[in-house]
Amino acid sequence: MGNTIIRVLHTPGHTPESIALLVTDLRRGPEPWFVLTGDTIFVGAVGRPDLPGNKERNAALLHASIHEKLLPLPGELEIYPAHFLGSACGAGLNLSGKPCSTLAFEKRWNRVLSMDRDAFVAHVSGAVAAPPSEFDTILRFNQGRSP
């Protein structure tokens, strides 16, 4: 898109089709500028793995997506998640009201990011709230089926 390059990173875990968008503005330089993390990494939390079912398998996928695709990116990279405080999409109680952060800040302060795989899976799959009351309607709509 002109001077803007958007690289799609497949980051399954919250859902099988989850993605993050790595954005580079060539007018600023060749390095990525920010990443839209979707429901993979939030400020202070990570995405919930239970909505598509099989929460332990999805939590393991989420851990791999975070550790293999997002955390290796430069620490100064700004992150913009899809949600912040008030969303039911975060796993755990630490979802921040701050709408953006950096990978370095999250590596330091988002404690679930430093957990090993087994601890992460146990924590994230056990730290989810009940799905939203209208979840079935939302799911049908997102799948292109009539509500």
Features:
five-stranded mixed sheet, globular, 147 residues, alpha+beta, 8 strands, Metallo-beta-lactamase, Chain A, 4 helices, 22% strand, three-stranded antiparallel sheet
Would you mind describing this structure in some detail?
By secondary structure, the chain is an alpha+beta fold. The protein has one domain (4-142): Ribonuclease Z/Hydroxyacylglutathione hydrolase-like (Metallo-beta-lactamase, Chain A), CATH 3.60.15. The chain is 28% helix and 22% strand. The protein contains four helices and eight strands; from the N terminus they run βββββαβββααα. It has helices spanning 55-70, 103-109, 117-126, 135-142; strands at 4-10, 19-25, 34-38, 41-42, 45-47, 78-81, 90-91, 101-102. A hairpin with an 8-residue loop joins strand 2 (19-25) and strand 3. Helix 1 crosses helix 3. It is globular, with a radius of gyration of 15 Å. The model has no long low-confidence stretch (mean pLDDT 86).
Question: Strand fraction band?
Answer: 15-25%
Element-level helix/strand string: EEEEEHEEEHHH
Main sheet properties: 5 strands, mixed
Backbone structural class: alpha+beta
> Mind telling me the CATH superfamily name?
Ribonuclease Z/Hydroxyacylglutathione hydrolase-like
**Number of structural units classed as domains:** 1
What is the fold named in CATH at topology level? Answer: Metallo-beta-lactamase, Chain A
Count of extended strands:
8
Describe the strand arrangement of the main beta sheet, using strand numbers: 1-2-3-6-8
Write down the CATH class.
Alpha Beta
Radius of gyration: 15 Å
What share of residues is helical?
A: 25-40%
- Low-confidence stretches are none
- Shape type: globular
Question: In the CATH classification, which architecture applies?
Answer: 4-Layer Sandwich
The end-to-end distance, rounded to whole angstroms, is 35 Å
- Average pLDDT confidence is 86
Given the structure, what is the number of helices? 4
